[in-house]
Design brief:
This protein has 5 helices and 7 strands, in the order ββββαααβββαα. The chain is globular and about 40 Å long. The chain has a 5-stranded antiparallel β-sheet. Strands 1-2 form a two-stranded antiparallel sheet. The chain has one domain: Four Helix Bundle (Hemerythrin (Met), subunit A). The protein has 159 residues and is an alpha+beta fold.
């Protein structure tokens, strides 16, 4: 995972992995109907939990509230997936050409964000899980800004 220092504190903040390569034999495909339904279910739940779920502050408030109430350690996978979908949707809204696809490799698959014309792969579900384990309050909004900036910068240089 790539990370950057938080201004003034020197602490790493979570980032989104920007990968221009895919495993040999891997393909990116449109999500199948069950994956589309799963994404829709996650969005509906986020909308209920985050007053619409469409802004980074609401998503960050949810993450911070859960982290404060939890016993520590990693949150349940279902929760990191939920937040990963919300985080990914926020990135998609800010970087034209990105969308949800499924990276399939052998018998494994992963919901990722890819770009329509560039070989960019972002893994918000995986990255949110890794970022959450650091349990620093307030990480969602800065991580979103950083992910969007890095994705845009890479899209300017990769062709």
């Amino acid at each position: 995972m790539t990370s950057a220092a938080h201004p003034g504190r020197g602490e790493p903040l979570p980032g989104i992995t920007l990968d221009t390569s895919r495993p040999p034999g891997a393909t990116c495909e449109r999500p199948r109907s069950q994956e589309v339904r799963w994404l829709a279910d996650q969005r509906a739940l986020l909308a209920d939990l985050c007053d619409g779920g469409g802004d980074p502050e609401a998503l960050g408030d949810l993450v911070d509230a859960v982290a404060q109430r939890g016993p520590g350690g990693a949150p349940p996978a279902a929760l990191t997936c939920l937040v990963g979908v919300g985080f990914g949707d926020l990135v998609v809204r800010r970087v034209p050409g990105l969308g949800w696809t499924v990276l399939r490799h052998g018998t494994t698959s992963e919901l990722v964000l890819t770009h329509a014309t560039h070989p960019l792969v972002l893994r918000p579900l995986t990255e949110v899980e890794a970022a959450w384990s650091a349990q620093r309050p307030g990480w969602v909004s800065p991580a979103l800004v950083r992910a969007v900036q890095r994705a845009r910068a890479l899209l300017r240089t990769v062709g």
